Structure formats: structure tokens, C-alpha cells
């Protein structure tokens, strides 16, 4: 018979770099689509503080690195001063309850459409290859994605710099760390996947 007094590993402390987590339960980044004009709203203070525990880790919803990063409605950004200032009271609320808060930064790349892009331009990607239809979050409706434009080689350093600036802005907003979203078919993943990335440069 198992020792009933043994600690459940999920609820035991964990040292993650310089952070001492009081348990291993982490709030994963959850896209909320409630950041009107790509600016985090005051109601996010309550949302994140309700999910905070002393010594617990929270990862903010995916946060755009530039005005070309968006692929869903009303997702937050962290490329402008206004966005950075809007994040500050949210981060402060998490810290006031003893939580550790990371900002997840992302760029959706080709998983977007002209409606989300500046001046109605095509979304950018590692490729301009067509993609298979994608279901929306309803799992019923098909997403209306605009064919992407292949980034020119000389444009790529600007995208890297967008991520650098977003990480710097996240720290300025008070976040304890940054997580780079590099999966789920978004921009970084588009560069990493052979079936998507057909570049030779």
C-alpha cells in the first residue's frame, strides 16, 4: 500500500533557474481575445490575479511582437509604449499575490488574414506555399486565411529584432521572464518545419 503521507509531486516545490516555485502547477498561456485594439484591458488584472498563488508560475496569453504578428481578434501586443504601460498593473497584481509571471511572445506568420494586417497586406511567412484549410476554434468553421508573402532574406533581421524588442518591453512591463512561442504552426515553427519552409537561403 502506498504511503498516504507521501507528497504529491505536482504540489512539491521546484527550482526553475533563479525562481523557487512553491508547486509545479503552471497557468498555461490561454488566448482570451479580450485586448481591444491589441491593448491589455483592466479586467485582465482580475483574471490573472484570481489565478495567482504564492510562488506559482503564470504564463500570459500569447502576446504579439509587432503589428504584423496578429492572427486572431483582440489579442494583446507588447510592441508599443501604450501596451507596455497597460501590462504594468496586471503584472503588479500578480506580484502582489506572490506569483511569478512570464510573458509569452509570438508571431502567427501565415496563420492570419488581411483583416489583421497593417494596410490590409498579406501575412508574412517563411514561404508563400498554399496551406490546407484550418478550422477555427469552433472546430466547425473554416478560418479565412490570406495567402502569405514570403519574407525577403533582408527582412528577416527585422523580425528577429521585433522579438528582441518585445522581450525587452516585457521586462520593462515587470514580467519575470519571457517564453517564445515556437510551436503550433506559427511563424517560428513555419521556419523550422521542412514541409512548410521551402527556402534555400
UniProtKB/TrEMBL annotation:
Cofactor requirement: FMN
Residue stretches making up the NADH:flavin oxidoreductase/NADH oxidase N-terminal domain: 10-201
InterPro entries assigned to the protein according to its UniProt record, in alphabetical order: OxRdtase_FMN_N, Oye-like
One family name in Pfam for this protein: Oxidored_FMN
Keywords: Flavoprotein, FMN, NADP
Protein name listed in UniProt: NADH:flavin oxidoreductase/NADH oxidase N-terminal domain-containing protein
This protein's record includes keyword Flavoprotein: yes
GO MF term (any one): FMN binding
Amino acid at each position: 500500500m502506498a504511503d498516504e503521507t507521501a507528497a504529491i509531486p505536482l504540489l512539491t516545490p521546484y527550482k526553475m533557474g533563479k525562481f523557487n516555485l512553491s508547486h509545479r502547477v503552471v497557468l498555461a498561456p490561454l488566448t482570451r481575445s479580450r485586448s481591444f485594439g491589441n491593448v491589455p484591458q483592466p479586467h485582465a488584472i482580475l483574471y490573472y490575479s484570481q489565478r495567482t498563488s504564492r510562488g506559482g508560475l503564470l504564463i500570459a496569453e500569447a502576446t504579439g511582437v509587432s503589428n504584423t504578428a496578429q492572427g486572431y481578434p483582440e489579442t494583446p501586443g507588447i510592441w508599443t509604449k501604450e501596451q507596455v504601460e497597460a501590462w504594468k498593473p496586471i503584472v503588479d497584481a500578480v506580484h502582489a499575490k506572490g506569483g511569478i509571471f512570464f510573458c509569452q511572445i509570438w508571431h502567427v506568420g501565415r496563420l492570419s488574414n488581411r483583416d489583421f494586417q497593417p494596410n490590409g497586406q498579406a501575412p508574412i511567412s517563411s514561404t508563400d506555399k498554399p496551406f490546407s484549410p484550418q478550422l477555427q476554434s469552433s472546430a466547425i468553421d473554416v478560418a479565412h486565411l490570406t495567402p502569405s508573402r514570403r519574407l525577403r532574406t533582408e527582412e528577416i533581421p527585422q523580425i528577429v529584432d521585433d522579438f528582441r524588442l518585445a522581450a525587452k518591453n516585457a521586462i520593462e512591463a515587470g514580467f519575470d521572464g519571457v517564453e517564445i512561442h515556437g510551436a503550433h504552426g506559427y511563424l517560428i515553427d513555419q521556419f523550422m518545419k521542412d514541409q512548410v519552409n521551402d527556402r534555400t537561403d
